[in-house]
Structures are given as structure tokens and as C-alpha cells.
């Protein structure tokens, strides 16, 4: 009887009409800024940086969506700061209800303001704390971690190591100053002391020449000479001007962390825990290269859209946005726990990897740091600390 009943049920399912197809449109917009190449040729950005991650996210959304009659389309755009606004309008005219943005702070804020209520903007690149604070926007969700999250992740590990005397070197660019301020705040928050600060002025010129290592070998020891006694050197170098030159070149034999050495990241191509190996393999088979942070953040932004569509069974952008910003929303990110969105600044909660060039050393939040709501809220600006006020 059970077999007959099962066959009858199967027949009913097979005879049932397929669900009506729902198309969910998004766009990924990368804004490239002209500048010097990175210090190491290993860090040269691939042409599909970020875009490849969004493609994998779209494929993953389609896998689940096929059972629900949902199809996903993610248009790809690359712009400059001068063409970004026009490119956004092109994406919106194409029907995109969600815009994944890979850009700096200024461009991300401008695009969010230009989009207004026409689309939900998912920030997959900009890390500035101002975007989560006084410059926050209700239509902006931050998939990329803030400087405060990255600094707190590192500070927790250094507190566990009892390396609580820091020598801070910051660059001369605005993003460097923002990251340096995050390190200052983290030091105070987790009981460390910044014993000295120095600024490395960017004077321009070539940074990658045949004789570069000779110059660095002479310059960096002198630049770091005479610092107050410290446990570790912290580099705040978002512009990528000097930090990679610091390891093994400091006057004192001290470890380096921050923008070089031990680096806090959202993703690392050597991560294997929590099912990441299979995820890494799928990306590498598609893109023919390892996954970078920008790829992971774009993938996760696209997956946020897909997860909302799956949970709601809807393709209406307004309905999806409502769910994404609700307390019920969560998404998996191959980091060992569910990722959720803070309602006070729209920052995605997520663990931060502490990495070297070859592997993941640790993952924050560290076990010793607890929170009454979510341990992930020990990273970054908590509700009582936020300067964000949505209209």
C-alpha cells in the first residue's frame, strides 16, 4: 500500500504544472581608479576581479532557483569614477533591482545616493567606517567588512597573545588615516597601548624596480629605528604603498601585522575549513585562479539576493529587500556560522580570517570575547557605539 501511495503521489507531482518562471535581475558594478601597480606582481588585479565571484554567486542562485521557478540574471559593468553614474543608470534601466558595487568609499556613497529608492546597493568593496556611521544610507548593505571589524579582529588575537604594546605606522592617504583610527579605537577597546606612531609619506614614483629591494633594505630599518619598545608593528596602508616592505626589514626584530604580515581578511585562498575546499575548487575551475577577497564579497552579495528569493519565494525587489533587512534573514558563507545583518548600520556580521600569505593563522572573534547578543558583534561598531541614523 505504501508503494502504491508513493507512486500515486509521484504521479500527482509529475502532473502538476511547473511553477511560473520569475526573473530576478541584479548588476555588479566595479569602479576602477587609475593608479600605480601593486608592490608585488603577484597582486596585480585580474581583469575579472570581483566579477568572477558574482558569476559563481549567480550560478549558485540558479541551482536552488531552478526548483522554485526562479532565474537569476547578473549584468556586469566596469566603470571609472567619471563614468560610474551613467553606468549605474544603464544598469537600472536594464531592470536591476540590486546593484553590487566594488568601489572606494566616495564612489560607493555617490552610487547609493544616485540609486535612491530604485535599488538596494550591496557594498562589496568599501571599508570606511564613515559609510557605516555618519554617512550611512538606508538603501546600502555592507557585505565588505569595515575597518573597525578588521582592526578588532586583529586586536582580539593580539590580546590573546598578550602582545599589547603596538608601534603604529600609517600611510599618508585618507583611507590609511581611517584604518589607523580604527586601530587606535581597537587598542583602547581591547587593552593595548600604541606606544608610538609614525607616518610614511607617499612621495610617488616607482615602487617596483630591479633595485627596489636594495633601497628598501637600507630605508626601512632607518625609518623604524629608535621606536619606543613594542611587541608588534601595526601597518595601516590601505593604499598599498609601503606595508609589504616592512616584514624582515624593521630595525627591531618584531612581527608585523595589519596591512602586511598577519593580515585580517574576509577570505583567503588557502582556507579549507567549513566546506571551503569544495567552494574554492568550484571557483578555481570556473575562473582558473584563486579566489580573492573582492570575489568572495561579490559572491556573498549575490548570494544574499538569492537567499532572500529562496526564503520568500518571491522575485519582487521590494519584498526581497524587506526580507534582507529583517531579523529573520541569514546566509551561509563557508565560515562556520550563519551571517546576519545589523539593523543599526546594515553591516553584515561575519568572522574575520587572520592570514599570512600561505595560510589562515586564526579566526576572530576569539573565544574569550563574548557578547550578549552575538559574538560577531564584538567586531566593529556595536549598537551603542554607532553614529548611523537612518531616516
UniProtKB/TrEMBL annotation:
Residues 51-355 form the Leucine-binding protein domain. The keyword DNA repair does not apply. The keyword Membrane does not apply. It comes from the Bacteria. Residues 1-20 form the signal peptide. Keywords: Amino-acid transport, Signal, Transport. SUPFAM superfamilies: Periplasmic binding protein-like I. NCBIfam families: PQQ_ABC_bind (TIGR03863). Belongs to the leucine-binding protein family. This is ABC transporter substrate-binding protein. It comes from Tabrizicola soli.
